[in-house]
């Protein structure tokens, strides 16, 4: 019996490779299903926008994550190539590729975690809000697919402007009757990653030892590093506070300008997204004490969405931590952040509710 099963598994694997790597037919699915049965236990993760500047290195990093058993790579272009490439890595996750809107539902069905880096990036001179026109519609249609095919999945939203795309996603889920605020997380990890790096440089220590809470949102003055709450405990001069706050707030623009028209942060963003996704998966597994900053539905301020530290658990963002004591400088920055955030959130909400 066992020998027969093993023989048919091998034949299925071989015959799947006789077909061109077309993503239209069922040959790919047959091959994947065959391998999935023997796959490692773990979570099912989809990346939407997997062939992009962020999507490709993120696909690589998620294929390396031992908590991932199945990895679905979806894009409107080039996903077959990225899938073939990543699928040759000898790690546990089974990789399947999906191309174009007709395959979105198959890409999403059964997923535990959906990561969304789909959408256009900035060029020099643009703000993140300039991306709204195109990215709002992309996020809306992808979230409609999530509501239909995997309404219980955790969603990690990367597409900019995050301050507006997270409210868009929330409205789509509300309309579909599937909204669970705990499961919708805007990814602001890159702000924390940058803050840790820049603070470590100033302090002359290893960035892996530094933890800077970054609150507010993910654009310009809405990005607020709380330098009074850095771990390990330390103090900064007012010049250092100005320098660090500005550098973290403009980290994205620094990369956009350095890339000179070739896009925005992709590699550091893939690193940050993989770090955040791993934290979400460890939370889903039931690990205790998983805390990350994220832009979520929140009652920490009067705004409906705000980034603060959240505790990640089996159902997503299970606890949202308050801001903690702020300095006068931070209180003034918070007021500016809230003013800009309010407009960006409203813009996202009215895009869906218009
Ligand atoms: N949250 C954050 O901290 C950060 C967010 N971003 C944002 O991430 C987004 C992606 O950036 P990059 O990867 O550099 O851009 P990219 O242009 O290199 O890749 C985007 C990918 O999305 C795909 N795409 C477009 N429409 C799609 C749809 N309807 N369904 C699925 N895929 C679709 C494209 O085909 C492309 O492969 C941008 O909006 C960017 O601003 C970038 C860096 C940091
Ligand atoms: O700056 C951009 O456009 C991309 C981004 O969000 C970042 O790098 O933080």
Automatic annotation (TrEMBL):
<dbReference type="InterPro" id="IPR015955">
    <property type="entry name" value="Lactate_DH/Glyco_Ohase_4_C"/>
</dbReference>
<dbReference type="GO" id="GO:0006097">
    <property type="term" value="P:glyoxylate cycle"/>
</dbReference>
<feature type="binding site">
    <location>
        <position position="160"/>
    </location>
    <ligand>
        <name>substrate</name>
    </ligand>
</feature>
<feature type="binding site">
    <location>
        <position position="269"/>
    </location>
    <ligand>
        <name>NAD(+)</name>
    </ligand>
</feature>
<dbReference type="GO" id="GO:0006108">
    <property type="term" value="P:malate metabolic process"/>
</dbReference>
<feature type="binding site">
    <location>
        <position position="135"/>
    </location>
    <ligand>
        <name>NAD(+)</name>
    </ligand>
</feature>
<dbReference type="Pfam" id="PF02866">
    <property type="entry name" value="Ldh_1_C"/>
</dbReference>
<dbReference type="GO" id="GO:0009507">
    <property type="term" value="C:chloroplast"/>
</dbReference>
<keyword id="KW-0329">Glyoxylate bypass</keyword>
<dbReference type="InterPro" id="IPR010097">
    <property type="entry name" value="Malate_DH_type1"/>
</dbReference>
<dbReference type="GO" id="GO:0006099">
    <property type="term" value="P:tricarboxylic acid cycle"/>
</dbReference>
<dbReference type="GO" id="GO:0030060">
    <property type="term" value="F:L-malate dehydrogenase (NAD+) activity"/>
</dbReference>
<feature type="binding site">
    <location>
        <position position="128"/>
    </location>
    <ligand>
        <name>substrate</name>
    </ligand>
</feature>
<feature type="domain" description="Lactate/malate dehydrogenase N-terminal">
    <location>
        <begin position="44"/>
        <end position="186"/>
    </location>
</feature>
<keyword id="KW-0560">Oxidoreductase</keyword>
<dbReference type="Pfam" id="PF00056">
    <property type="entry name" value="Ldh_1_N"/>
</dbReference>
<feature type="binding site">
    <location>
        <begin position="49"/>
        <end position="55"/>
    </location>
    <ligand>
        <name>NAD(+)</name>
    </ligand>
</feature>
<dbReference type="InterPro" id="IPR001557">
    <property type="entry name" value="L-lactate/malate_DH"/>
</dbReference>
<feature type="binding site">
    <location>
        <position position="194"/>
    </location>
    <ligand>
        <name>substrate</name>
    </ligand>
</feature>
<dbReference type="InterPro" id="IPR001236">
    <property type="entry name" value="Lactate/malate_DH_N"/>
</dbReference>
<feature type="domain" description="Lactate/malate dehydrogenase C-terminal">
    <location>
        <begin position="188"/>
        <end position="351"/>
    </location>
</feature>
<feature type="binding site">
    <location>
        <position position="122"/>
    </location>
    <ligand>
        <name>substrate</name>
    </ligand>
</feature>
<dbReference type="InterPro" id="IPR036291">
    <property type="entry name" value="NAD(P)-bd_dom_sf"/>
</dbReference>
<feature type="active site" description="Proton acceptor">
    <location>
        <position position="218"/>
    </location>
</feature>
<comment type="subunit">
    <text>Homodimer.</text>
</comment>
<keyword id="KW-0576">Peroxisome</keyword>
<feature type="binding site">
    <location>
        <position position="75"/>
    </location>
    <ligand>
        <name>NAD(+)</name>
    </ligand>
</feature>
<keyword id="KW-0520">NAD</keyword>
<protein>
    <recommendedName>
        <fullName>Malate dehydrogenase</fullName>
        <ecNumber>1.1.1.37</ecNumber>
    </recommendedName>
</protein>
<comment type="similarity">
    <text>Belongs to the LDH/MDH superfamily. MDH type 1 family.</text>
</comment>
<feature type="binding site">
    <location>
        <begin position="158"/>
        <end position="160"/>
    </location>
    <ligand>
        <name>NAD(+)</name>
    </ligand>
</feature>
<dbReference type="InterPro" id="IPR001252">
    <property type="entry name" value="Malate_DH_AS"/>
</dbReference>
<dbReference type="GO" id="GO:0005777">
    <property type="term" value="C:peroxisome"/>
</dbReference>
<keyword id="KW-0816">Tricarboxylic acid cycle</keyword>
<dbReference type="InterPro" id="IPR022383">
    <property type="entry name" value="Lactate/malate_DH_C"/>
</dbReference>
């Amino acid at each position: 019996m066992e020998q027969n099963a093993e023989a048919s598994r091998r034949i299925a694997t071989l015959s799947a490779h006789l077909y061109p790597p077309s993503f239209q037919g069922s040959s790919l699915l047959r091959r994947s299903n065959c391998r999935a049965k023997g796959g490692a236990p773990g979570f099912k993760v989809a990346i939407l926008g997997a062939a992009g500047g962020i999507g490709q290195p993120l696909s690589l990093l998620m294929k390396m994550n031992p908590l991932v058993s199945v990895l679905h790579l979806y894009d409107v272009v080039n996903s077959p190539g990225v899938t073939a490439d990543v699928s040759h890595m000898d790690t546990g996750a089974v990789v399947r590729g999906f191309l174009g809107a007709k395959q979105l539902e198959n890409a999403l069905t059964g997923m535990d975690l959906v990561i969304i880096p789909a959408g256009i990036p900035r060029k020099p001179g643009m703000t993140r809000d300039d991306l709204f026109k195109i990215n709002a519609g992309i996020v809306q249609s992808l979230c409609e697919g999530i509501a239909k095919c995997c309404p219980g999945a955790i969603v990690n939203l990367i597409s900019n402007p995050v301050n507006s795309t997270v409210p868009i996603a929330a409205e789509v889920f509300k309309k579909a009757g599937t909204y669970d605020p705990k499961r919708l997380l805007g990814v602001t990890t890159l702000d924390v990653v940058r803050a840790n790096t820049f603070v470590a440089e100033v302090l002359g220590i290893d960035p892996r030892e530094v933890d800077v809470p970054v609150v507010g949102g993910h654009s310009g003055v809405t990005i607020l590093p709380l330098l009074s709450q850095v771990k390990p405990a330390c103090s900064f001069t007012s010049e250092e506070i100005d320098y660090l706050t500005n550098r973290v707030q403009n980290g994205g623009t620094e990369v956009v300008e350095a890339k000179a028209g070739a896009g925005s942060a992709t590699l550091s963003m893939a690193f940050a997204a993989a770090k955040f996704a791993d934290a979400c998966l460890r939370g889903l597994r039931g690990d205790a004490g998983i805390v990350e900053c994220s832009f979520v539905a929140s009652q920490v301020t009067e705004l409906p969405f705000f980034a603060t530290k959240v505790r990640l658990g089996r159902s997503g963002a299970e606890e949202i931590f308050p801001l903690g004591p702020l300095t006068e400088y931070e209180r003034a920055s918070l007021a500016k952040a809230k003013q800009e955030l309010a407009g960006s959130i409203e813009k996202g909400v009215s895009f869906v509710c218009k």
